[in-house]
Amino acid sequence: MEHDLIAKWKSKAGEVFEKLGFTPIYIGLEKNYERKGEYHKLTFLIAFNCFVIEWASSYEEACMNVYEDTDLLPSFALGEKEVLLELENTLIKYYMD
């Protein structure tokens, strides 16, 4: 998988976080999305050709890189639109009041 393509998908996924009111914040070199004191980031899993949403319950945990893998998104091989819609639905269902 090309690094540029992963960066493109990660950027588009970030737009979904921001659309839903998550605030982008860099912790070290990693872009996170904060909402109500919780931190989320996307990590690409090469073995599965997909992203996983990682979650930290506080800024301190995020700074120490203590994240839990929470949700595996479908492979982008299914199509960009479908994966971004799944991300949006997952964020609404599990991470928003």
Features:
single chain, 97 residues, alpha+beta, five-stranded antiparallel beta sheet, 3 helices, globular
Describe it.
- This protein is α+β, with helices and mostly antiparallel strands.
- It has one domain.
- 39% of the residues lie in helices and 32% in strands.
- The protein has 3 helices and 5 strands, in the order αββββαβα.
- The chain has a 5-stranded antiparallel sheet with strand order 1-2-3-4-5.
- A hairpin with a 2-residue loop joins strand 2 and strand 3.
- The radius of gyration is 13 Å and the shape is globular.
- It starts with a helix and ends with a helix.
- The model has no long low-confidence stretch (mean pLDDT 93).
Short description:
With 97 residues, this protein is an alpha+beta fold.
- Please write the string of helix (H) and strand (E) elements: HEEEEHEH
Neighbour order of strands in the largest sheet: 1-2-3-4-5
Low-confidence stretches: none
Number of strands: 5
Round the mean pLDDT to the nearest integer and report it.
93
Strand-helix topology:
Layout: H1 3-19, E1 23-27, E2 30-35, E3 38-45, E4 50-56, H2 59-63, E5 68-72, H3 80-95
Antiparallel strand pairs: 1-2, 2-3, 3-4, 4-5
Helix pairs in contact: 1-3
